[in-house]
Amino acid sequence: MSDYPRLARQLEALLDSRDWLTNAAQACAFVMQEIPDLNWAGFYLQRQPETLILGPFQGKPACNPIPFGKGVCGAAARTRQTQRVDDVHAVADHIACDADSRAELVVPIIVDGALWGVLDLDSPRPARFTSDDQAGIERLVATFVAASDFTG
Ligand code: SME
């Protein structure tokens, strides 16, 4: 099991830029490096109404754009609730970017009360993400938000 308090401290130390783009690139590389059994980790950003655009990520080239009405990422954006899926093959409107992906965790990112984007993690291992992982990844997202300036 990952030591999320330690990971949050390490991420905070790593994010020494205020630039959200630099910090997002560093944050997804850090997550991919430190959290076992992931095949994709990255950001989708809301830069158009009701649409998620692919941002910094680690892994295979991914689907873009994603409307709020579709998939696990769309559900996270629409509801502003973290989506934790044990087996994406059981989700009817899951957007399959990579057939190897089985479990998915998508955390909405809220900045100044508005949905800024989501952090999406995929794993080839079914039921990879526990409620502890969810709380830990939400903590890492909060660390990223606190470290970043989103005005530029
Ligand atoms: N599976 C996601 C799409 C993004 S990729 O996994 C990188 C979804 O259903 O929203």
Report on the architecture of this protein.
The structure is a single chain. The protein has helices spanning 4-14, 20-34, 71-79, 131-147, and strands at 40-48, 51-59, 66-67, 83-85, 103-111, 114-123. The protein is of the alpha+beta class. It has a single domain (4-147), classed as 2-Layer Sandwich (Beta-Lactamase). Strands 3-2-1-6-5-4 form a six-stranded antiparallel sheet, with helices on both faces. Strand 2 (51-59) and strand 3 form a beta hairpin. Helix 1 (4-14) runs parallel beside helix 4. It is globular and about 40 Å long. The model has no long low-confidence stretch (mean pLDDT 96). It binds methionine sulfoxide. Methionine sulfoxide binds next to helix 3 and strand 6.
